[in-house]
Design goal:
alpha+beta, disordered N terminus, 28% strand, single chain, five-stranded antiparallel sheet, 32 strands
C-alpha cells in the first residue's frame, strides 16, 4: 500500500511549494548515481536523467523519443519482451537484468527495477519508470568468488578433519514465538546431508552415495532422544562445540568432537547446518579409562601422540604426558606448577581469553576449543589447537587439555591465500593467451601474451578490433560459436587468425561459455596457444618422408614406453644399417640393443633429462651397430610430441651417419697434439743446435786470429794450431751436414727406397772409412755377422746409422779397447748391435739420447767433439723402416747400441 508523507522544512512551509527546493530535487535526480528513465509501453523513452545519458554517451535530445529496447543485443530482446509483457500485465514492480552494448563496443550488465508511473491519486499515467544499477563489476566479483569457492572446496576435500553440509528444503524459525518441538522435529528428520569430504566418510565407514541424503536422525538412530538433545543445543546456540556419542555403519561406537554452525538467511531463518568433526574415540576411551582406573592412567596417558595436560582451575599444570614433553622440549618436572603463560609465544596470544576458556570449562563442564601459539624450549614458535574438557584427577575436579600441532594446516591455509595471488600472476605471466569475449564479439579481457601473439601494442589497441574479422579464410567465429553452443565448451579447437600486420597464425583453443542463472551466455572465456610452428611441421611431414625414404637419413618414431619400441622407421634402414623396417617395428630387433654399450647409459640419461625438462626437441650423438656388427657414429635429432595435457605421446627422430666426420675429428685432434709436441721439441732442439754451432766458433776464431796475426809463433806451434783448427772445423762441418740431413728427413725430401740386399756386406763396408781412427787408438774390432743377411732396407739410411753408431764406439773407447759388431735374425726381423768397452753413459743421460728436446754431448777419449744429432738421425732412419733403436750402458763398462728392422717392408710404408 502506497502512503504519502508530509515533509516540512524548518520554517514550517511545505517544500513542494518552494521553487528552490524543487530545483534541488530535480538536480538530485539528474545527477543521482543510478540510471533513471521513463518510457511508454512500446519502450519509447520520455525522460532520461544525466547519469543515463552519460552511461550511453548520448545527449538527452538523442535518447528521448528512441526505444531503449533497441539498445539491447539481439539475444536479449525476446527475453526482455517476455518479462515486460508480464510486468505490464501485472502492473507490479519487477527486476530485470539487461546487457547493453555501449558505443565503445564493451558490454555492460544493468539491473533494472521497473514500476508503473501514477499520479498523486494512484491513477496509471500510461508510463513506466526504470531505475538501473550497473552490476557488471558485481558479476566479475561473483566469478572471482566462484574461483575462491573452488579453492575452498579443494581445502575442504584435503582437510584431515571431517566436514559436512546439511540443507533444509524450507527454512525454519527458532525463537520464542514458534512451536519449537515441531521445528526441532523438522530440523532433525527432514534436513539432508548434501556434501561431505573423505575424512568424514572414513569416520563412519560409509561411501559417498550412502552418506548423501542422511538426516540427523539417521546419525543418532541408536539413541533418538540423545540426538535430539544435541541438535537442540545447536539450534539454541547457533555455533556449538560438542562431543557426541555416535555409531559407524557397522554399529561400532565412536566419539565425535564437532564444531557446528547454523546457516541463516536474511530474515534469520535457519536453512542448513555446517559441521567440522574429528574422531576422538581414542581420546574419549582414554578419559573413560582414566575415570575407571587412575592407577594405570599414566600408561594410557602417555600412549596418545597428542599433547595432554592436566590443569587445575587456575590453569596450573598438575601433570603432562610424553606428547607434551615431545611437543615443547621440556621434561615433565619443568611443566608442573606452571601455567600456559610460559609456553605462550610473545605477542601471539590473548592470555585473558585463555584464562576465560579454562574458567568456563571448569565451572560449566562445557568443552572449549581454541588456537594457541606455542613457544618451544628451543625458541621455535608453532600453532596448535587446544580442546579443554572437564574431568577428574585423583578424585578432584580438573581440566583435561588436549593439544595438537596444526603447523601443516596453517601452512595449507597460507598456501590457499597465496593461490589467489598466483592466479593473478598466472593471468599476467602465462605464455598462453587468455581472453574473454562477449557473444557479440567485443573483447572484454585479454592478457599480455594474447596481445603480443596477435601483434598488438596494448589492450586498448586490441579491444577495438572486430573479432569476426580476426578469423582467416576457411575459418569463422560462427563455426566456433556453433561448436561451443552444442556442448558448452571446446577443447583443442584449431583455427587460423590474422595478426595486426595481416600475417596468419594457427592457434589451438580451449574455451567455455559462461551463462547467467537464466541460461543466457554472458561471455566466452578460454586460452589460446600458437601452434603455427607445429602446423608447418605437420604439413611438411609427408614431404619429409618422401625426402628421406631414398636418402641416407633415417626417420624413426619411438613409443614413449620402456625400451623405446619402434612404431615407424623409414624403408631406407636396410640400405643404411642392413636391417629391414619390419624387423624393428615387430620388435625382433630391439633398438636400445643396437646402441654401443659404452653409449647406452648416457643416451638413456639424456633422454630422461630432455623429456622431463619440457623442451620440444634435442640432439644426441652415439654409435649404432649395423647388421655386420660394425659400429658407426650417428647424429640423432629428436622431436618430442606431446598431447594437450603435456604428456609425451611419442618421439620422432632423424638419424644420419657421421662416422666419417667423427674419424676426421679424432684424426685432427691427434694430429694437432702430435704437431704441438713436435713443435715444442723442435723449438728446444733448435735452441740446442744454435748453442752447439756458436760456442765452438769462439775457439776456432781465436786460433785463426793467432795464425793470421802472430808472426813470431814457431812452426811447430803453427802446425799444432792448424791441426786443432782443422779438427774443430771438421766437427762443425759434420754437425752442419747432420743438421741438413735431419732437415731433409723432416721435410720428406730424402726418398725412402728399401730394397732387398745383404745387410752384412754393407755393415762391413761401413767399418773401412774408420780404419785409421781404429788403428790410431789401437782398438780391436770384431764382426760377428752371418755370412749373408738378406733383408729389405734403404742402403743410404742404414749405412748412415751404422757409421754413426760405430764412429761413436770408436770415439768413446780408450786405447786398446774392444768393439764388437753383431747381428741376429728370425723369420720376421733382423737385430743389429754394436758393443764397446768405452767410458759408458750415466743412467740419467741415457734418457736424453735420441731426443731433440734434450741436449746431450760429450768429448771422446781423445777430445773428439759431438752434438748428439747423429743419434737423432739414426732414430728417424730406423723408424722409417718401422723399426726401433735403443741403448744399454754402464759408466766405465761400455755401451751397447742396438736396432731392429723388419725383413719385409710393405710398399705402402714408403
Amino acid at each position: 500500500m502506497r502512503t504519502k508523507k508530509k515533509i516540512e522544512n524548518s520554517s514550517g512551509k511545505v517544500p513542494g511549494r518552494n521553487l528552490d527546493f524543487q530545483n534541488w530535487v530535480n538536480s538530485l535526480i539528474e545527477n543521482f548515481p543510478v540510471l533513471i528513465c521513463r518510457y511508454l509501453p512500446d519502450t519509447t523513452v520520455t525522460y532520461a536523467n544525466q547519469t543515463y545519458c552519460k552511461f550511453f554517451n548520448v545527449s538527452s535530445e538523442k535518447i528521448i523519443g528512441k526505444k531503449w529496447i533497441e539498445l539491447l543485443s539481439n539475444q536479449e530482446v525476446p527475453f526482455v519482451k517476455t518479462k515486460l509483457n508480464t510486468f505490464h500485465h501485472k502492473m507490479e514492480p519487477c527486476k530485470i537484468q539487461n546487457r547493453f552494448i555501449l558505443p565503445t563496443g564493451k558490454a555492460r550488465t544493468i539491473e533494472w527495477l521497473y514500476s508503473p508511473v501514477e499520479d498523486s491519486s494512484g491513477n496509471f499515467l500510461n508510463e513506466y519508470q526504470g531505475i538501473g544499477i550497473d552490476i557488471t563489476e558485481k558479476e566479475i566479483t561473483l566469478a572471482e568468488l566462484k574461483q575462491k569457492e573452488k579453492q575452498l572446496e579443494l581445502f575442504f576435500l584435503q582437510l584431515l578433519d571431517g566436514f559436512f553440509f546439511m540443507n533444509l528444503d524450507e527454512p525454519i524459525e527458532w525463537n520464542v514465538k514458534i512451536d519449537k518441538e515441531a521445528a526441532l522435529n523438522k530440523f532433525f528428520y527432514q534436513q539432508k546431508t548434501t556434501k561431505v569430504n573423505d575424512a568424514f566418510l572414513s569416520m563412519y565407514g560409509m561411501t559417498k552415495d550412502e552418506m548423501i541424503g542422511m538426516s540427523p536422525a539417521d546419525f543418532f538412530k541408536h539413541n533418538i532422544s540423545y540426538g535430539k538433545e544435541v541438535v537442540k543445543q545447536i539450534l539454541d546456540k547457533s555455533i556449538l562445540v560438542i562431543v557426541t556419542d555416535e555409531r559407524t555403519k557397522e554399529g561400532k561406537q565412536i566419539w565425535i568432537e564437532g564444531n557446528y554452525f547454523l546457516f541463516k538467511d536474511e530474515e534469520g531463518k535457519i536453512y542448513g547446518l555446517f559441521g567440522i568433526q574429528r574422531d576422538i574415540t581414542e581420546q574419549k576411551f582414554l578419559e573413560e579409562t582414566l575415570k575407571e582406573s587412575e592407577e594405570s592412567y599414566h600408561g594410557l596417558f602417555n600412549a596418545v601422540s597428542d599433547a595432554i595436560y592436566i590443569q587445575d582451575e587456575t590453569g596450573a599444570f598438575l601433570d603432562v604426558n610424553k606428547g607434551a614433553e615431545k611437543m615443547y622440549g621440556y621434561n615433565r618436572e619443568e611443566f608442573i606448577g606452571r601455567t600456559p603463560l610460559f609456553l605462550s609465544a610473545p605477542g601471539k596470544n590473548n592470555f585473558d581469553n585463555v584464562k576465560s576458556f579454562i574458567q568456563t570449562t571448569f565451572e560449566t563442564g562445557v568443552s572449549s576449543l581454541f588456537e594457541f601459539w606455542g613457544l618451544k624450549k628451543n625458541g621455535e614458535i608453532f600453532p596448535k589447537e587446544v580442546i579443554l574438557n572437564k574431568g577428574t584427577y585423583f578424585g578432584k575436579p580438573a581440566i583435561i587439555a588436549i593439544a595438537r600441532d596444526i603447523t601443516e594446516r596453517k601452512i595449507f591455509e597460507e598456501t590457499l591465500k597465496e593461490s589467489e595471488e598466483r592466479y593473478r600472476n598466472l593471468f599476467k605471466d602465462s605464455p598462453l593467451g587468455i581472453y574473454r569475449t562477449s557473444p557479440e564479439g567485443a573483447v572484454i579481457m585479454a592478457n599480455p601474451a594474447l596481445i603480443k601473439m596477435l601483434g598488438y601494442n596494448s589492450y586498448d589497441d586490441l579491444v577495438s578490433i572486430d573479432i569476426d574479422k580476426v578469423y582467416a579464410e576457411n575459418y569463422s567465429r560462427s563455426d566456433f560459436k556453433k561448436k561451443i553452443d552444442e556442448t558448452g565448451k571446446v577443447v583443442g579447437y584449431e583455427s587460423a587468425w590474422y595478426k595486426k600486420d595481416g600475417s596468419i597464425i594457427y592457434v589451438r583453443e580451449n574455451a567455455r561459455a559462461v551463462k547467467d542463472p537464466d541460461g543466457r551466455i554472458i561471455y566466452y572465456e578460454g586460452t589460446i596457444e600458437d601452434i603455427t610452428e607445429k602446423k608447418i611441421v605437420e604439413e611438411m611431414l609427408m614431404a619429409e618422408k618422401q625426402l628421406f625414404f631414398g636418402g641416407p637419413v633415417l626417420v624413426f618414431k619411438w613409443k614413449n614406453v620402456d625400451g623405446w619400441p619402434v612404431e615407424y622407421v623409414s624403408p631406407n634402414i636396410i640400405s643404411v644399417l642392413g636391417y629391414t623396417a619390419e624387423e624393428l617395428m615387430s620388435g625382433k630387433i630391439v633398438y636400445p640393443n643396437l646402441i654401443h654399450p659404452g653409449d647406452q647409459e648416457r643416451v638413456e640419461n639424456e633422454m630422461i633429462v630432455y623429456s622431463n625438462s619440457g623442451v620440444e626437441r634435442f640432439e644426441q650423438e652415439y654409435r649404432l651397430r649395423d647388421v655386420n656388427n660394425i659400429y658407426g657414429w650417428y647424429h640423432d635429432y629428436t622431436r618430442i610430441v606431446r598431447n594437450d595435457e603435456g604428456e609425451i605421446i611419442y618421439y620422432h627422430g632423424y638419424l644420419f651417419d657421421i662416422t666419417a666426420r667423427k674419424e676426421a675429428e679424432e684424426a685432427l685432434i691427434k694430429s694437432e697434439q702430435t704437431l704441438r709436441n713436435t713443435n715444442v721439441m723442435k723449438d728446444k732442439f733448435f735452441s740446442i743446435i744454435a748453442h752447439d754451432l756458436r760456442s765452438p766458433f769462439q775457439g776456432l776464431l781465436g786460433m785463426a786470429s793467432i795464425l793470421s796475426e802472430e808472426e813470431e809463433i814457431s812452426n811447430e806451434e803453427r802446425i799444432q794450431l792448424n791441426k786443432k783448427l782443422y779438427e774443430g772445423l771438421k766437427t762443425q762441418f759434420n754437425l752442419l751436414d747432420n743438421l741438413l740431413t735431419w732437415s731433409r728427413v723432416q721435410r720428406d725430401i730424402i726418398e725412402f727406397n728399401p730394397e732387398l740386399g745383404d745387410l752384412a756386406v754393407d755393415i762391413k763396408d761401413t767399418v773401412l772409412p774408420l780404419q785409421s781412427s781404429i788403428e790410431r787408438k789401437n782398438l780391436y774390432i770384431e764382426c760377428r755377422l752371418p755370412e749373408t743377411l738378406q733383408t729389405s732396407f734403404d742402403k743410404n739410411m742404414i749405412t748412415a746409422v751404422m757409421r754413426n753408431i760405430i764412429s761413436n764406439a770408436v770415439k768413446f773407447t780408450r786405447q786398446g779397447g774392444k768393439i764388437i759388431i753383431s747381428a741376429e735374425e728370425n723369420e720376421k726381423e733382423v737385430t743389429v748391435s754394436v758393443s764397446d768397452t768405452g767410458i759408458g753413459i750415466a743412467q740419467n743421460d741415457l734418457e736424453k739420447l735420441f731426443r731433440i728436446d734434450a741436449h746431450f754431448s760429450s768429448k771422446g777419449t781423445d777430445g773428439e767433439g759431438g752434438t748428439g744429432l747423429g743419434l737423432i738421425l739414426c732414430k728417424d732412419f730406423i723408424e722409417k723402416h718401422n723399426g726401433k733403436i735403443w741403448v744399454e750402458s754402464k759408466v766405465g763398462k761400455g755401451s751397447v747400441f742396438s736396432f731392429v728392422i723388419p725383413k719385409q717392408i710393405e710398399t705402402s710404408e714408403k
